[in-house]
Design a protein that fits this description.
286 residues, mainly alpha, three-stranded antiparallel beta sheet, 3 strands, coiled coil, nucleus, Centromere protein K, chromosome
Length: 286
């Protein structure tokens, strides 16, 4: 059962108790007056009881133990007397205070008045306790509502934080991927620049000076001004492989300097087409 159900039951039980207590009559009239004859009879009985009490008291005084007796004997005698008195009280039947009905009615009315005052005191205490419990119940209900609001707000905050974390995680992954791609692009650009510098330094294009030296050796040489550098040839082969992997071959024309083409083929950097010797492609190094 939930806490709301328990609180509702407590409220209902308090309301029922308050209705019962409010409906209970406490102002009961009692008639405590007796006639003169009943009062005289009661006084005579009291005098007789007092006379009997004085007689018993005198007997107790005359029956005082001898001071010469030891303390142990006194204790034994007292214990015996108390045991005998206890046995007598246990076997004694209770007697009415007075056989007169008026006296009994007056005594009963007085006892009922005492009981009524005690019940009124208990009733006032129970009412104060009920009011205190109602106030405590209201405070508990208010505290429960506040805790529910806090729990609801915390739940919404956790859900929002979870969504925010998921969104941030997706954005972080996308941002990290972009950074990695950019880093790879930068690394590729540096590699290409380094490769271009190395090729430009160690594999330059033929110039007029080299052409003149070869003519001195009686080797005819026609120099084409539109020749591609080794770096440009490799870049052309790589772009062709990436752009059209199903047809990675590049046709050799007059812009390809034959020594560069032969070097690429001899060192396994490029491969010639099996059916067309004027086509080459980059070797698949992956």
């Amino acid at each position: 059962m939930s806490s709301d159900g328990v609180q509702q039951e407590n409220v209902q039980s308090l309301d029922k108790e308050s209705e019962v207590e409010e409906a209970a009559p406490f102002n009961v009239p009692f008639y405590t007056e007796c006639s003169e004859a009943a009062q005289a009879e009661l006084i005579n009985q009291c005098e007789g009881q007092f006379a009997q009490l004085e007689m018993l008291q005198n007997q107790i005084i005359f029956a005082e133990p001898d001071p010469d007796e030891s303390t142990q004997e006194l204790s034994v005698n007292r214990l015996t007397a108390v045991a005998a008195e206890l046995k007598q009280w246990q076997t004694m039947q209770p007697e009415l205070l007075s056989p007169n009905s008026e006296v009994l009615l007056a005594v009963g009315a007085e006892e009922l008045q005492k009981l009524n005052s005690q019940l009124e005191l208990v009733f006032s205490c129970s009412q104060a306790k009920r009011d205190k419990l109602r106030e405590s119940l209201k405070r508990e209900q208010k505290w429960l509502e506040e805790k529910k609001e806090v729990f609801r707000a915390a739940t919404e905050h956790v859900a929002n934080q979870r969504l925010e974390n998921e969104r941030l995680s997706e954005n972080r992954v996308l941002r990290d991927t972009k950074k990695k791609i950019q880093k790879m692009k930068d690394y590729q650009d540096r590699l290409m620049e380094t490769l271009a510098d190395i090729l430009e330094e160690h594999f330059p294009l033929p110039t007029m000076e080299t052409s003149v030296n070869k003519k001195k050796k009686n080797i005819p040489q026609d120099l084409n001004q539109d020749l591609l550098s080794l770096n440009e040839i490799l870049e052309l082969l790589m772009n062709k492989t990436l752009d059209t992997p199903h047809d990675p071959y590049v046709r050799i024309d007059e812009t390809f300097w034959p020594p560069y083409t032969e070097m690429l083929l001899r060192y396994g950097i490029a491969l010639r087409h099996p059916e067309d010797c004027f086509k080459i492609r980059l070797e698949a190094f992956y």
